[in-house]
Amino acid sequence: MKKLVTLFMVTVLASMAAKTVLAADTLADVKKKGVLVAGVKDSLPPFGYVDEKTRTIVGYDIDFINAIAKKLGVRVELKPVTSASRMPQLQESHIDIIAATMTKNPERAKQVDFSHTYFFTGQKFITKKGTVKSLKDLEGKKIGTAKGSTSEQNVKKALPTATVLSFDDYPQALLALEQGKVFAVTTDEAILAGILAKAPNKARFEIPRVQISDEPYGLGMRKGDKHFVDFVNKTILDMEKSGEAARIFNKWFGPTTQFHLQRNFKITAGK
């Protein structure tokens, strides 16, 4: 019996060690295969969406992935993910990194390792103009958001009397708002600005000054993938120092864009 227990423990430890080695090999593997596979959004401007002219996925998140790949000397392969599918895709090794508007929080940090914060925003709402002045106006209402998002969790805490309807993506939630099926749509302000800018009847809607959370975005990597995490963190810190990170922000959120926001953050170590 003791031999069986010992053999079992050795097998478990060997398995754990193998997983640790695999997790730590992403940087070397990416260099070896010559391609960085990134999970990104493909219908969420300006973070990740299909450009109508080029039919390629472009956006703020994609520019960061391109910069990391350039530093690695490899090409990029983009794989569309949803809020619900992005972590399973990473854990099952279908992608090497997540760049998909993913908020850093303690629960997710148990499953993936995050980079330093490369974007910062806050959770708000899209509503019909003039209908919401305070959080109280949203109590007891139907509110749309995306499955598997922190927005889904945050709104349930902030508005326990509301009915939260979860959709596969935010454009679907906005359609429900246009059709009167929900009273409001909630997620991060930067995402709301992106989907509202693309709405055909955007003049009917607004983003009231009602915020329920802070949302720091991180690039997600496999747990224990230290070499890769360190490389990504150094790269984005260098991008901040050189001004490249600010240039990417201005490209997508600057005053001449339809998604205009103020850059109220800097990429710093430990955040």
TrEMBL record:
One of its GO terms (cellular component) is outer membrane-bounded periplasmic space. The keyword tRNA processing does not apply. The keyword Protein transport does not apply. Residues 1-23 form the signal peptide. GO terms for biological process: amino acid transport. It comes from the Bacteria. SMART domains: PBPb, PBPe. Keywords: Signal, Transport. PROSITE patterns: SBP_BACTERIAL_3. InterPro entries: Bact_solute-bind_prot3, Iontro_rcpt_C, SBP_3_CS, Solute-binding_3/MltF_N. GO terms for molecular function: ligand-gated monoatomic ion channel activity. Residues 35-255 form the Ionotropic glutamate receptor C-terminal domain. Residues 35-256 form the Solute-binding protein family 3/N-terminal domain. SUPFAM superfamilies: Periplasmic binding protein-like II (SSF53850). Pfam families: SBP_bac_3. Coiled coil: none annotated. Belongs to the bacterial solute-binding protein 3 family. This is Transporter substrate-binding domain-containing protein.
